[in-house]
Amino acid sequence: MSLKGSIYMNSITKSISEKIDELRNKVPLVHNITNYVTVNDVANALLAIGASPIMADDIEETADITAISSALVINIGTLNKRTIASMIASGKKANELGIPVIFDPVGAGASKLRNDATKEILNQVKVSVLRGNLSEVSFVAGLKVSTKGVDTSEEDEKNDGAAVAGSVAESLGCAVAITGAVDIISDGKRVVKISNGNKMLKKVTGTGCMTTALIGAFAGAEKDYFTAAASGVASMGIAGDIAFEKAGQMGTGSYHIAIIDALSTLDSKIVAERAKLHEE
Amino acid sequence: MSLKGSIYMNSITKSISEKIDELRNKVPLVHNITNYVTVNDVANALLAIGASPIMADDIEETADITAISSALVINIGTLNKRTIASMIASGKKANELGIPVIFDPVGAGASKLRNDATKEILNQVKVSVLRGNLSEVSFVAGLKVSTKGVDTSEEDEKNDGAAVAGSVAESLGCAVAITGAVDIISDGKRVVKISNGNKMLKKVTGTGCMTTALIGAFAGAEKDYFTAAASGVASMGIAGDIAFEKAGQMGTGSYHIAIIDALSTLDSKIVAERAKLHEE
Amino acid sequence: MSLKGSIYMNSITKSISEKIDELRNKVPLVHNITNYVTVNDVANALLAIGASPIMADDIEETADITAISSALVINIGTLNKRTIASMIASGKKANELGIPVIFDPVGAGASKLRNDATKEILNQVKVSVLRGNLSEVSFVAGLKVSTKGVDTSEEDEKNDGAAVAGSVAESLGCAVAITGAVDIISDGKRVVKISNGNKMLKKVTGTGCMTTALIGAFAGAEKDYFTAAASGVASMGIAGDIAFEKAGQMGTGSYHIAIIDALSTLDSKIVAERAKLHEE
Predict the structure, then answer these.
(1) CB contact under 8 A, B39 and C36
(2) pTM value?
(3) Are B264 and C253 contacting, i.e. CB atoms less than 8 angstroms apart?
(4) How many CB atoms lie within 10 A of CB A3?
(5) Which domain holds residue C266?
(6) Nearest to A64 among B112, B148, B257 (CB)
(7) B186 Cβ partners below 8 Å, 6+ apart?
(8) What percent of chain A has pLDDT over 70?
């Protein structure tokens, strides 16, 4: 890494490590329209990191709840026609009030409904941060994808993540986080890669959804959404590292619980010490 | 505390400590129309305390399920038009058959939909126990509230909980439980405060919902709903205390699991030893 | 047990112990249309055993998701009119493509809606494996049942499980698994009983749903659905045994987590050593 790059990485690391204290002081209310598979973990991850979660998805209240929140998280994991309408109504309200919108296009590429909903949401709502795996973000980039369910396909793994992230960030004018073995965050100008986390994270459902929600928590307390995205992704990766040290040998049930434990005890010092940020 | 007060508290403590054995013998079926965020914990808390949970929310079966149950728990945490109709249909059936109805107006005060649903349910259904935080119960009392999401606002904390509980209990003719740093249970005539539990309970989603469901379990086995409400609230508070001793230092994930552990191993002796009941 | 019976049991035990390695190699995608109470555990159990879960229930995508999956799991735990239509559409698509369908008629016998939905699904969809408790499968067998909620009633416990399983297996032309104190798997010709597991499994919600999903995982990797059913049931029973040894004394919260731990660390050797299969 160049000296300039190194200074830049140190500066980002410092920035994201400071964000967690700011977040815990502000306790932002994060409105989630999300799936019923991982919603409990999403709520507990938000509480653990210092935010206050609220879930509401009926069209008659969803915009009202968004209006009192500091961030809106939209996750299409178990979408249906009723909730898609609510996602769009809440997204528009958030745009109107300058509230950040974090979008997780779970399974985009896997069905026409998910593809259409993803396009419709991106068409009608200005997104602040988009987070997905490489298959999902490749779909948003307009690439042909071969998604198998909600995981990145082996075929799609060959895509150049940094290029995909940069291209989507530029076309949507937002920050993009692609999570995987190495996470990539880009806003089209800045880019950072994060090597925290381990492959056991993929053996617990909802670690992606939780990451998206954590980004929402940081975005509710920090107006630079690129930094918020990096903070959310780094927090989950570091929690995954700590959890693996404590409970990796016991199995995925204990590992799951240890992730929440680690998030709830995370602080600036731990983030500064453990964050593995790099340019390449 | 006066001697008379002290005797009264000892008598209530004895009463609620005996209830848990009765509950475990009876294994009441508790029908829950509840939110999808905390529903798994609600089911596991009910099993842990000795009840049998059933969840059903379609209008075509909801009254049938209520009819075979010993208690009905209505929780509007993620309400929608479809489930509001089911709540009312089940509530009416419960009233018809003399089955107790426990109502948790989650987030009342935070949106027009929640406000309207709360009023409509209370208008059409005779409730046996109402449980909420101070903001939610203040809303039911007709006070102006400044709820932020699903937590009690700082502004609303200034309300006099005992007065609010008593007023709602009288106007609805039911028992009222307001949970918070100190819990208050009132039926308009009797009042008891409970100081078990600790602030970590607020860092795990669903501890309020579980408390409401536990009240349902006790009400399914005990016709004095004031005692049932105190028993449910005390059980969660004591479980929170035990869990904090065992797992508080590990983080909120382990604490969450330890709450269920504590509920599942709770017995009359533990309740009698640990319950912190008082008048003032 | 006769020598012939003993050889047969050894052969089945060997067969199901080998299946787990095959499953972990294949990583079948398992589509679940299931209830919102236990869905998180279902997803984590599928990941733990080596499958990849996907949940989707909107009529506009449900058949598309089934079409890319290796197995379809239908669970009516919190059914509603919207999802019943999706279950049937997905079931038909699975039949069309030769994808196995695992059906869990949760609470059949407890309400007209559940009874009607169970009949309608069995009428329109060819099922590969049916899993339920004795009350539920007795209902499918056309026997009069006295189900109390989602547990087997004491009255129904008197039914002859092996006869019920065999009769349903023959009439539907599928494998049938009745889980309880002793599990029974039959395809009308072959029958095996499994004595793993312990009564604490009933104190954690979702262990039945998880068993059904595990059968789906094995059926996604193994075309003999009788063996797949026995493999799924044995896996959960063995996980229940291991979890009880590790965490039974701590309470049902820790036991719950230990079940997932045990599933995630299960291998052919453990299954071969611990499986308790017998004819009578």
Answers:
(1) yes
(2) 0.97
(3) yes
(4) 7
(5) 3-278
(6) B112
(7) B162, B165, B166, B169, B175, B176, B192, B226
(8) 99
pLDDT computed for residue C119 by the predictor: 97
**Domains held by chain A: number:** 1
CB of A271 closer than 8 Å to CB of A50: no
Residue B168: phi and psi, rounded to 5, are -70, -40
Predicted local confidence at residue C1, as pLDDT: 55
Q: Give contacts of B151 with chain A, Cβ < 8 Å.
A: 52
In one-letter notation, the amino acid at residue B264 is S
Task: Name residues 142-201 of chain B within 8 A of A (Cβ).
Answer: 148-151
What phi, psi does C115 have (nearest 5°)?
-65, -50
Q: Does B262 touch chain C (CB under 8 A)?
A: yes
Mean pLDDT of C109-136: 97
Which chain A residues touch B55 with a CB distance below 8 Å? none
Whether the Cβ atoms of residue A278 and residue A270 lie closer than 8 Å to each other: no
How far, in Å, CA of C119 to CA of C113, rounded?
10
**pLDDT value of residue A1:** 55
Mean pLDDT of A164-168: 97
pLDDT, residue C234, reads 97
**In terms of CA atoms, which chain B residue is nearest residue C113?**
B61
* Closest by CA position to C75, among listed C50, C44, C51, C107: C107
**Closest to B183 measured CA to CA, from B193, B175, B174:** B193
Q: What are phi and psi of B221, to 5 degrees?
A: -120, 0
Q: Give the neighbours of chain C: at least 3 Cβ pairs within 8 Å.
A: A, B
pLDDT above 60 (res B1): no
Q: Of all residues in chain B, what percent are helix, strand and coil, respectively (each to 5)? A: 55, 15, 30
pLDDT single digits (tens) C62-89:
999 999 999 999 999 999 999 999 999 9
Q: Are B126 and B136 in contact (CB under 8 A)?
A: no
Name the token pair of A87: 């996602």
DSSP string for residues in B44-84: HHHHHHT-EEEE---TTTHHHHHHT-SEEEEE-TT--HHHH
**DSSP-based three-state secondary structure for C181:** coil
Handedness of CA B95, B97, B100, B105 (dihedral sign): negative
Mean pLDDT in chain C?
95
Phi/psi-derived region of residue A273, left when phi > 0, alpha when psi is between -120 and 50, beta in every other case: alpha
Residue A87 forms contact with B (CB below 8 Å): no
Greater pLDDT, C153 or B69: B69
Q: Name the average pLDDT for chain A.
A: 95
CB B225 within 8 A of CB B128: yes
Q: Does the pLDDT at position C183 exceed 80?
A: yes
DSSP state of C204: S
Q: Looking at beta carbons, which residues of chain A come within 8 Å of C257? A: 253-254, 256-257
What pLDDT does residue C150 have? Answer: 74
Query: Is the pLDDT assigned to residue C61 strictly greater than 60?
Result: yes
What's the start-to-end Cα distance of chain C, in Å? Answer: 8
What is the torsional sign of CA C150, C154, C157, C158? negative
**What's the angle, vertex CA B209, arms to CA B63 and CA B56, rounded to 5?**
25
CATH number of residue C263's parent domain? 3.40.1190.20
Asked if B252 lies within 8 A of A261 by C-beta distance, the reply is: yes
A80 at B interface, C-beta within 8 A: no
Residue C146's pLDDT is what? 79
SS3 A38: coil
What are B132-168's pLDDT values in tens digits? 999 999 999 999 887 777 777 777 777 899 999 999 9
Summarised one tens digit per residue, pLDDT across range B11-26 is 889 989 999 999 999 9
- Which residue, among C131, C150, C24, has the nearest Cα to C74 in the 3D structure? C131
- Residues whose CB is less than 8 angstroms from the CB of residue C248 and which lie 6 or more positions away in sequence, other chains included: C198, C200, C255
Tokens 């499968």 map to which residue?
C137
